[in-house]
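User: Sequence recovery, please. Input:
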């Protein structure tokens, strides 16, 4: 399997109004630049938010780096969304646990977005909800850094001998990390 066999990635946070839409926007922008625009990106939240716009500070922080997330709308996570994704990038370990408990998500399909942070792999990406615009900018910087490393690893690794089995994502994790 190679990077062109990956068709869909889902990004998950709590409300799907701050971190995951920022990450969806950043990844979409960076995927276009990296020649990976064939990968479908979506985001969702583990709470019940539905059809809400991203928080204005999330929109502002992204717009400052040329990324428009204003048209994105929140969606609650569902089993079908997880099933349709090749992998799910979660902002916190808590989200991984919630998806396993509430959506019967296979653990091997779930990745912690903070695992792609160069200085602190395995970190939870903090929730900026209710915080200042400058904190949104800090979180966006972390999201950009994790996105760059994720894309770099995605492009560098040939996955030709990996089949999409229940161990598929475990093998990807071993290649990536």
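Assistant: Recovered sequence (177 residues):
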């Amino acid at each position: 399997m190679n990077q062109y066999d990956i068709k869909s990635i889902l990004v998950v946070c709590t409300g799907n109004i701050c971190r995951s839409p920022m990450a969806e926007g950043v990844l979409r922008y960076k995927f276009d630049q990296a020649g990976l625009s064939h990968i479908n990106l979506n985001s969702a939240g583990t709470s019940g938010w539905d059809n809400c716009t991203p928080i204005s500070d999330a929109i502002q922080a992204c717009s400052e780096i040329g990324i428009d997330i204003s048209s994105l709308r929140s969606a609650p996570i569902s089993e079908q969304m997880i099933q349709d994704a090749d992998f799910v990038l979660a902002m916190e370990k808590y989200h991984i646990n919630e998806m396993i408990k509430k959506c019967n998500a296979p653990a091997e399909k779930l990745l912690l977005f903070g695992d792609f942070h160069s200085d602190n792999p395995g970190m939870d990406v903090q929730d900026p909800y209710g915080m200042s615009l400058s904190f949104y900018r800090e979180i966006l910087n972390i999201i950009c850094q994790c996105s760059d490393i994720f894309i770099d690893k995605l492009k560098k690794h040939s996955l030709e001998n990996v089949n999409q089995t229940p161990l598929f994502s475990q093998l990807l994790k071993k290649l990536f990390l």
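Helices lie at 19-33, 56-63, 79-84, 93-103, 133-156, 168-176.
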